[in-house]
Amino acid sequence: xxxxxxxDGELVEAMGRGDEDALGEIIRRYTPYVWAVVxxxxxxxxxxxxxxxxxxxxxxxxxxxxxxxxxxLKGYLSSIARSRAVDALRRLRQDLPLEDDIIEIPIxxxxxxxxxxxxxxxxxxxxDSLPEPDRSIFLRRYYLYQTMSEIAEATGIxxxxxxxxxxxxxxxxxRELTExxxxxx
Length: 185
Description:
By secondary structure, the protein is mainly α. It contains eight helices and no strands. Helices cover 66% and strands 0% of the residues.
């Protein structure tokens, strides 16, 4: 008999009812993705066992909050993974890419889904408005969590120029998000 393939929504719904098999299927599907998100942030700053612990914590958090039924499972897992990885680095007092913490969108709390979507959309528009290569540099630093040296090597741009472009990019984003009413600082 062929196995039944469930959508993410069906799995999340089943998990919300306490179905451990649904959680197992989500873990099977998304462990490589969550691992990639975590490893892109922590890299060699943490050992593999610590990274695995973060990945496990991501799925535990999903299980614990299953009743909330996230709209986008992949987005939800990514947000939790990023948050947990950054928290782990903070505990180690590692340098983090968002030194100024100018863009902090919480993944948990009393905010409604509509407000979160508006914030993400505003942030995406602001990042997309950056000219190239500034946009690519910004995404490499704050989304892929690459070091300044890695960005310089990948783009062929001097490290000091990368730093300057990131500083100017943050200033542009701060201004745009402030004018849009999204920056609190």
